[in-house]
Fold this sequence. Notes:
Layout: H1 3-11, E1 13-15, H2 21-28, E2 33-39, H3 46-60, E3 66-71, H4 78-84, E4 88-91, H5 105-112, E5 120-123, H6 134-145, E6 151-157, H7 172-185, E7 200-203, H8 204-207, H9 218-230, E8 235-242, H10 250-270, E9 283-290, E10 293-300, H11 313-316
Parallel strand pairs: 1-8, 2-3, 2-5, 3-4, 6-8
Antiparallel strand pairs: 5-7, 6-7, 9-10
Helix pairs in contact: 2-6, 7-10, 9-10
Bound molecules: uridine-5'-diphosphate and the ligand O=C(O)[C@@H](COP(=O)(O)O)O[C@H]1O[C@H](CO)[C@@H](O)[C@H](O)[C@H]1O.
Ligand XDX is lined by residues 105, 125, 158, 160, 170-174, 196-198, 216, 219, 245, 247-248, 253, 256.
Amino acid sequence: MLAEAADWLRRRSSSAADWPAEPLLGLKGSTRVSVVLPARDEQDTVGGIVSAIRRDLVERTPLVDEIVVIDSRSVDDTAAVAAAAGAKVFGQDAILPRLPCLSGKGEALWKSLAVTSGDIVVFVDADLVNFSPSFVTGLLGPLLTCPEVSYVKACYDRPYNGPEESFAGGGRVTELVARPLLNLHWPLLAGIVQPLGGEYAGRRSLLERLPFMTGYGVELGLLLDALEAVGLDGMAQVDLGAREHSHQSTEALAVMAAQILQTAWSRLDRRGLMMPLSSPSPALTQFHRGPSGHEPVDRDAGVAERPPMIEVPEYALTLGPAGERARGAGRGHSRD
Ligand SMILES: O=c1ccn([C@@H]2O[C@H](COP(=O)(O)OP(=O)(O)O)[C@@H](O)[C@H]2O)c(=O)[nH]1
Ligand SMILES: O=C(O)[C@@H](COP(=O)(O)O)O[C@H]1O[C@H](CO)[C@@H](O)[C@H](O)[C@H]1O
């Protein structure tokens, strides 16, 4: 990991426990806070999340000024369940009706900016099964206490088969696509433990100036563009413990991976980097949960390239005048 990334990881990391709600309320002042949940067919989970935020962070400790659910073309009762729990619900396609309707999570998140008023916007997925209001207070902590920070990402263990499993199970596209991509092309972001995590927060003054990828590329796109806009020091990361959510099939995640690769491609192309990398970094930084939190583990992912065999003199010598391989050429030493 680059020394700059490791230094950032030390300086800009905290945990949800560092940001209890009451002290944050004293720091909120006139800052308005919106919590946004993008929800497509999340009737089973959206109500519990909204209710928990409303109970703890609107009624008990009024840190949150509005809870907005963007109904992303649900065909179940997501909208009714979210409204009954106390959220303001907007249909994704009804927002900014002059514009052509696009699909995907990023479209829902982008349009949420048009129907919210918070100076700070907190994004929370609506399919979480172990949500805690500390997810919201944790993300608000750095933004309410550090004016230099404009974008905060959550990190967490991501068990795949229930709370008892190690965090390594979930985040399949993170581990197989996003993390290698970031380490290769954006090593400054190698300290982001969960680059694709759906829980993050930003100042509106930043978010309204960033493009949003419409599908599942939204998290990667925002991360890359936030780095460009505010620099690594304008970002922070908060450990929220563990995050469990409903999982898509591998087949569905292939579509997500393709959208994420398109997003990376577009940013590389925009920076004129779509040419052979002069010195790609062979390092891949992964993270293991240790006594002091997510501990970086550097792995060597270096690859080299062998030339066409025909160009290897020892091989070329074994070829006949017509370029054919002499019978028995290259066979190992026979035992007999
Ligand atoms: O077109 C979409 C796709 C997803 N989502 C929401 O975005 C969040 C994350 O999506 P999903 O659960 O499909 O992704 P995963 O967590 O499996 O990576 C969830 O609240 C979804 O309901 C959405 O609002 N619109
Ligand atoms: O991190 C990941 O690899 C994917 C899939 O997670 P799982 O393998 O189903 O635990 O989940 C995330 O990716 C999406 C794309 O950025 C986000 O929109 C989701 O909120 C997030 O859960």
